[in-house]
Amino acid sequence: MTSRSLQSKVLYIMNRRQTIPAHLRYTISDFNRQFPTDDACLEHLKEQRFSGGLVFCETCQGDRKLHRVKGRPVYACDECLTQFSPMAGTIFEHSSTSLRLWYYAMYLMASTRCGISAKQIQRETGVTYKTAWRMFRQIRSLLSETDMQLEGSAVEIDETYVGGKRKNKHGQRGMRGRDNDEKTPVFGMVERGGRVRVMAFVTPDVKAATLYPIIEEKVLPSSIVYSDEYSVYDRLATPANGYDHRRIKHAQKIYVMGDVHTQTIEGFWSLVKRGIGGVYHSVSRKYLQTYLNEYSFRYNRRDQGNLIFNAILKRVSERADLPLVSKDAGIPVVQ
Questions:
Q1: What is the layout of strands, in order, in the sheet containing 62-68?
Q2: What contacts 311, CB < 8 A, 6 or more positions away?
Q3: Rounded to whole angstroms, what are the CA distances from 104 to 303, 309, 325?
Q4: How far is it, in rounded angstroms, from Cα 267 to Cα 150?
Q5: Which CATH fold topology does 154-164+174-299 show?
Q6: 90, 110, 112: which is closest to 41 by C-alpha?
Q7: Are 191 and 154 in contact (CB under 8 A)?
Q8: What is residue 324's predicted lDDT score, i.e. its pLDDT?
Q9: What is the pLDDT of residue 5?
């Protein structure tokens, strides 16, 4: 390839149009325009938690409108002046960190595929590393989807191992997977077709007694289940389990045979491991599940573009300890 053709190719790559559709874009300019100040973030949070500025006031024993209390991040009942804080019961409660920085951290977490480190937030915002780490830990606590059911008629399952060190052990070079007790076992499932959602769990081991209850709870009966030749999966096709089990023989260097493969879940493992290795470098067994929740949350919403940020914001209110609004007001009771 000549230098001119190489230069043309580079310019073509640099000048390619944005690959995210316009209706799914949410840039830093959009973020700055929507949330320029702490007050704008507080007003947004208030509307998410108290839709239309209406809340059930226990003092008045009725639904009341709220107004902002000057100089304080709270709102008050129009009748009795009882105060309500939109941050109460959320991950923002008792935090001295700017609400806009919280929103910005969530925006950055939603805008990347491989994650962003607390150290990067520290550099960009000026908060301490301890504060940045705590913020990300709190945000990740919102992203679990334990109640999700895989609804696809076909599901890929696989186990992998995260962390640990590849080092000589008893004369064996580079011990991997089940041979290395320093690695953390992880079990994952991804549905095929439709929404193609993934679930990943840190497990104490990858024995049948551990994995089968997860499969039975999350995978619909009579589904097609694709796996590798790991012996633990032998019983999937038995009448007691009732799955249509199809397996690919990796040991024979066969990775795809028609529609029989585990490429989708392995692609997710690759994304997780690249992110942990390249961004976080190492993650302890204690917190690994929260990181898996983060990667799964983004993966399951990858068709939303940068609007994943809105999905995280919505989780703040959904996971908060909300006051009730009466049914008589025509607004659903929020549990």
A1: 54-57, 62-68, 75-77, 83-84
A2: 110, 297, 301, 304
A3: 21, 10, 30
A4: 18
A5: Nucleotidyltransferase; domain 5 (3.30.420)
A6: 90
A7: yes
A8: 39
A9: 62
137 closest CA partner among 118, 121, 122: 118
Q: How far is CA 266 from the centre of its chain?
A: 18
Beta bridge partners of 156: 190, 226
pLDDT of residue 213: 94
User: Which residue carries 């012996």 as its tokens?
Assistant: 231
Chunked mean pLDDT (size 10), the chain, 335 residues: 58 57 85 96 92 85 88 89 90 93 94 88 92 94 90 92 65 50 91 89 95 93 92 88 90 89 94 90 90 95 89 91 42 29
**What is the DSSP secondary-structure string of 116-184?**
--HHHHHHHH---HHHHHHHHHHHHTT---TT--B--SEEEEEEEEE------BTTBSS--GGG-TTSE
Token pair recorded at residue 211: 């994995």
The residue among 292, 299, 297, 255 whose CA lies nearest residue 163 is: 292
Q: How many residues does the chain have?
A: 335
Domain spans in the chain, listed from the N-terminal domain onward: 23-144, 154-164+174-299
- Tell me the β-bridge partners of 188: 158, 200
Per-residue confidence (pLDDT) for residue 315, from 0 to 100: 93
